[in-house]
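User: Before I run my own analysis I want an independent prediction to cross-check against. Here's the chain; please return only the structure tokens and, at the end, one sentence I can use as a sanity check.
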Amino acid sequence: MAIDASALNQRSQNGGSTQATAVAGQQLGADSDMFMTLLMAQIKNQNPLEPTDPAQFVGQLVQMNQMQSTLGMLSELKSNALMMRELQGLALGEQVGKQVLVQSDRLLLDGKPVGGRITLDGSDEVQLQLTGADGSSKLITLGRQAAGEFAFTLDPAAHGLPAGQYQAQVITAAKSAARLEFAAEVQAVRLPVQGGEPVLSLAGLGEYPASSITRLLGAASSTSSTRS
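Assistant: Structure tokens:
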């Protein structure tokens, strides 16, 4: 398992967040003591001929208790969110060196075959259009495919595609909706210092948030059933 250096920074940040939560708890206790002190002073100094309605004191106490309960729940939720985020990062770290599928419309070709998957709403003739940085496009015919998902492998050498960055788009004859995913190896997992979900660095694709990962493929890609 490998997590980059920013994960260590995040642990430090989490420690700071824990301290902040403790300070907030101390502040909450101080506010509660101040509230009770002021309430007692109000009771002692009220006009005995025109005493304050006891219901008002009860209402103030209820409001204070509700505020304390709400702040306590928020503090607990923040702590749980930080813990879940760190656990998710550690679990994703186990995927370093393994293949995943990610929904993406861009890829970086380096001469090696790239696996992927397309999901169709209906049976259709399918083409994959790749547009290079220079604006040139290449249409790759994948043939008629049934509704559902199918895997493919793109061989740059077979299609005369030079190394470089490409935009990818699925074109269907009957305009069926299509979802495009590419397989890539996880190179690193980063926990953003400012918070948020873990980010995965994928070979040939770049960085993607964990929510963009659609499937964990394991040590070897399983997207080689259709070669194009």
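Sanity check: Helices lie at 5-44, 54-93.
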